[in-house]
Design a protein that fits this description.
Rossmann fold, six-stranded mixed β-sheet, binds P-hydroxybenzoic acid, 388 residues, nine-stranded mixed β-sheet, 42% helix, globular, alpha/beta, 12 helices
Length: 388
């Protein structure tokens, strides 16, 4: 009897200890493409998350931060199943990551039902943040950059354009927002090409684009595909025709830029981040990131992950470690800080990111290719959202 009592007491103590432990830990579950076509996004974001924790410690408001990373291969069904498991079994308090739009959209209902804050660190379709009140975005939207490059094209004597985008939601967003601004400024869109997302062969589309004899091709391909696009553009001799490449900066991704060769020099894009961004915060970030990752250069996905962790840390500080979903979201709304990309904030109305968009030109600097920023549009909200 005594032994039984003791064991009950021991079990109760063990239970108490576990729940005390549980309370002392905040779990963050990330769903990222660590394999497959979008792998570079997973590598960039997970490396940035680790770096943030290395530089800022793994304890916030007295709680230990534990990050769980699941490889979703950029497949929505896989992400949905794994995020559900993380919420139900691992009892994560916050989720995040989401390398592509279809994955983010698949997580919306889960975040809403379980009241779990979900930090969009990569995906860029405007509509995502409308799909759950628990979504907060630290990445970007395609219209943010596409509208600005359209305005630049209008002002720089580009009159005829063929658009070429990956055939899924962010491509449609990029295409529509570019066309709206470009045609309003008197430009003409000669053809609208959509390239399959998986294993893209750009050659036939480039041929069709060249045949239309535009001043420029407006391109959106997701991070990871820019190298293939530029290679096929040069292989077909399009760099010699005077047809320019313009677009959001995904196509001259910092991750791949150095491998693109001199043909890419002079390409003008609009984007949220360049590894060459001139600020003390960015210099320190790039140096630390390279040091921790065998010289890998951070790209715009890395800053989405780094800032996503910052948002989580600062929200926890504000709630004093309380992980209640509604309290965390309230704490995140309106937050402002200096990112390696420049000043950013979370729009308190839409939970979407407000950030500078820079116009950049590819140049060789100290032997390496960089997107060199030469004009800044400050505090840009998602124009896609404004339209709806
Ligand atoms: C997206 O799927 O939303 C996405 C992915 C990669 C990018 C941009 C957008 O570079």
């Amino acid at each position: 009897m005594k032994a039984k009592l003791l064991s009950v007491a021991a079990a109760a103590a063990a239970l108490l200890a576990t729940s005390a432990n549980a309370q002392q830990t905040v779990k963050v579950g990330l769903s990222l493409p660590m394999t497959g076509q979008q792998q570079s996004t997973g590598v960039q974001i997970s490396s940035a998350v680790k770096l943030y924790m290395q530089l800022h410690g793994d304890t916030v408001a007295g709680k230990k931060i534990e990050v769980i990373i699941k490889d979703d291969g950029a497949v929505p069904d896989t992400a949905k199943r794994q995020v559900q498991e993380m919420i139900v079994n691992d009892k994560v308090d916050i989720v995040g990551g989401f390398g592509v739009t279809p994955v983010a959209l698949a997580i919306g209902p889960l975040a809403t039902q379980s009241k779990t804050p979900a930090v969009i660190m990569a995906a860029g379709t405007s509509i995502i943040t409308e799909r759950s009140p628990y979504f907060v975005r630290t990445s970007f939207t395609l219209p943010q950059s596409s509208v600005i490059i359209a305005g630049w094209a209008v002002e720089n004597n580009i009159k005829k354009v063929v658009t070429l985008v990956s055939d899924y939601a962010p491509g449609a967003d990029a295409q529509a927002s570019f066309k709206g601004r470009f045609t309003a400024g008197g430009g003409q869109v000669l053809d609208e090409l959509k390239v399959p997302l998986a294993s893209p062969d750009f050659a036939p589309f480039l041929q069709r684009a060249a045949d239309a004899k535009p001043d420029a091709i407006f391109v959106f391909v997701p991070s990871g595909q820019g190298g293939t696009f530029m290679k096929q553009f040069t292989e077909r001799g399009l760099d010699k025709t005077g047809i320019k490449v313009i677009g959001p900066g995904d196509v001259t991704d910092d991750d791949l830029l150095n491998g693109m060769g001199d043909a890419v020099i002079g390409t003008v894009t609009a984007h949220l981040y360049s590894a060459d961004h001139q600020s003390a915060a960015n210099k320190a970030f790039v140096e630390a990131f390279k040091k921790a990752n065998k010289g890998l250069r951070p790209n715009f996905m890395a800053v989405g992950g780094y800032d996503g962790m910052h948002l989580i840390y600062e929200a926890l500080k504000k709630t004093n470690g309380d992980t209640d979903g509604d309290k965390l979201i309230a704490a995140m709304k309106g937050m402002k800080w200096e990112s390696p990309r420049g000043p950013i904030s979370i729009d308190p109305e839409t939970r979407d990111i407000v950030q500078n968009i820079y116009i950049r030109r590819v140049e060789r600097k100290n032997g390496e290719l960089y997107n060199v920023e030469f004009a800044t549009f400050e505090a840009v909200k998602d124009p896609g959202r404004a339209k709806k």
